[in-house]
Amino acid sequence: QVQLVESGGGLVQPGGSLRLSCAASGFTFSTYFMNWYRQAPGKERELVAVIPDIGSSTYYTDSGKGRFTISRDNSKNTVYLQMNSLKPDDTAVYYCNARRGTSDYWGQGTQVTVSS
């Protein structure tokens, strides 16, 4: 069955860095767009970054532009989100998402807390 398993979240001080990973299985990873979303307490889930199935182009919303980097390793069926210069406003549950046409898969999320 389809699985997306996020890891790498935790507690970090403002200005620190974290690298999130999302390991995928049960579908042809290399043919899917991969996305990172986040949801802060009391807020709607929001898109953070997108990486297409092939090619090097990536997309970031204002939430992550300039500080976050999305990447993927199709040989490992894994997508990453490198987060630098973290701020308390980045505190949220971060979700991995795989999308192709009408197929839409989600992970369970990993908590990121930015606090001193």
Can you offer a commentary on this structure?
This protein is mainly beta and 116 residues long. It contains no helices and 11 strands. It has strands at residues 3-7, 10-12, 18-25, 33-39, 46-51, 59-60, 68-73, 78-83, 92-100, 103-106, 110-114. Strands 2, 4, 5, 6, 9, 10 and 11 form a 7-stranded mixed sheet that branches. A hairpin with a 6-residue loop joins strand 4 and strand 5 (46-51). The radius of gyration is 13 Å and the shape is globular. It starts with a strand and ends with a strand.
The total count of helices amounts to: 0
Can you write the helix and strand succession as a string? EEEEEEEEEEE
Largest beta-sheet details: 7 strands, mixed
Mean pLDDT: 96
Say how many strands there are.
11
Distance between termini?
40 Å
Strand-residue fraction? over 45%
- Which structural category do the helix and sheet elements fall into? mainly beta
| Helix content percent band | under 10%
Q: Could you list the spans in which at least 5 consecutive residues all have pLDDT below 50?
A: none
Q: Note the overall shape.
A: globular
Report the C-alpha radius of gyration, rounded: 13 Å
Which assembly state applies to the chains in this document?
A: single chain
Features:
single chain, mainly beta, 53% strand, 116 residues, 4-stranded antiparallel sheet
In short:
With 116 residues, the protein is mainly beta. 0% of the residues lie in helices and 53% in strands.
